[in-house]
Design goal:
By secondary structure, the chain is of the alpha+beta class. The chain is built from ten helices and twelve strands. The radius of gyration is 21 Å and the shape is globular. The protein binds N-oxalylglycine and nickel (II) ion.
């Protein structure tokens, strides 16, 4: 093969003797994810997990201590402290795009059981887990490693099991047995919190309490449950590359290992785990409909030598059969609409086409 031909096959400039596509394919076909690699005893990362040097942070001084992600106590949200809480949510959503919530009503034991069950799913024998492995977006429950494996420039050190609730609750039989009870219980509580947040976000935007519910902006969700195995060379890769979420809102449960960071005023700031807390972050779709009032901010997860780490991200989405554009209340002569009309299917198609490590998806829809 001529050099030119080889170079065309390796558009990212890899060593021409390295068959990246083949390695990626073998990894995917193993259906055992990153956990499978680790269990096979590897001490060096396969090359397709290695990120460009300039993007991987130095592990000693990565997080800025200048800033602290807001922590909002939801105690009294119905009455006595509602105004105070609304102000805190507004401030955090405009400046950070992130906040942590405590006393949000989801029992700590429900969250602990969920994290334990997710770990148990990922730690099952390969033969049991393999049956769930798929890249078919039409499946309601599936396990995979790196949703963007086939389009991303570099892979991340994590595996995921995902539940898609776009068509409503799932038949209990659809869940893997190891996590069935825990996921059903967790969802029962998360859906209540989703309703509470739909009202609080509406009011924090200065709209009527039922506004986001009426336009069905917080209608359904996919729940992605990540497993970040310990990493033999954490300085070469990521748990998750920097990205912003395509959702309206994301509600995130993380265990106590740490590694999640948000980009704030050009600094990467740790979102320190608080046992019993949940993290909320504004997604791209909320930024779009609020005409940039609320910000969807980039975040990432560092790979770690201590682990495994588990997290559960509930991505709340708008109605898939409706079109959305910036809400009238946020448009005026001085502040014209910044985005064109779109729907979540088109948005996700664009988001998925570029990989987590590509540029942000939102500017593509900017007028
Ligand atoms: C996500 C995400 C962070 C985490 O699923 O979009 O950013 O801590 N997850 O797993
Ligand atoms: Ni995210």
């Amino acid at each position: 093969m001529s050099r030119i031909m080889k170079e065309q096959m390796f558009p990212f400039g890899e060593d021409v003797n390295y068959d990246r596509a083949k390695e990626v394919k073998e990894f995917d076909e193993s259906k055992t994810g990153v956990k499978g690699l680790l269990d096979s005893g590897i001490t060096k990362l396969p090359r397709f997990f290695i990120h460009p040097k300039e993007s991987v942070p130095k592990h000693d001084a990565t997080s800025s201590c200048l800033f602290h992600v807001p922590v909002i106590d939801f105690t009294g949200y119905e009455k006595c402290r509602r105004l105070e809480i609304l102000n805190e949510i507004k401030e955090a959503s405009e400046t950070w795009g992130f906040f942590q919530m405590v006393n949000h009503g989801v029992p700590v034991w429900v969250m602990d059981d969920m994290l334990k069950a997710i770990k148990e799913f990922h730690e099952q024998p390969s033969e049991v887990k393999k049956k769930w492995y798929s890249r078919d977006h039409k499946l309601k429950v599936r396990y995979f490693s790196n949703g963007d494996l086939l389009v991303a420039k570099a892979a991340n050190w994590r595996d995921t099991i995902m539940f898609d609730f776009h068509d409503g609750p799932l038949d209990p039989q659809a869940y893997p047995l190891v996590c069935r009870e825990a996921v059903i219980k967790f969802m029962e509580h998360i859906l209540k919190l989703r309703e509470i947040l739909s009202e609080l976000m509406s009011e924090a935007l200065g709209l009527k309490r039922d506004y986001l519910a009426n336009i069905e902006c917080m209608k359904s969700e996919t729940v992605v449950c990540h497993y970040y195995p310990t990493c033999p060379e954490p300085e070469l890769t990521f748990g998750a590359t920097k990205h912003s979420d395509p959702s309206s809102l994301t509600i995130l449960l993380q265990d106590t290992i740490g590694g999640l960071q948000v980009l704030h005023q050009n600094h990467w700031v740790d979102i320190n785990p608080i046992h019993g807390a949940l993290v909320a972050n504004i997604g791209d779709f909320m930024q779009l409909i609020s005409n940039d009032k609320f910000k969807s901010v980039e975040h990432r997860v560092l790979a770690g030598s201590v682990g495994p780490r588990a997290s559960v991200a509930c991505h709340v989405y708008p109605n898939a059969s409706k079109k959305y554009r910036p809400i009238e209340e946020f448009i005026s002569d001085e502040n014209p609409p910044k985005y064109r009309e779109t729907d979540i299917t088109e948005y996700l198609t664009h988001f998925r086409s570029k990989g987590l490590d590509g540029c942000k998806a939102l500017p593509y829809f900017r007028l």
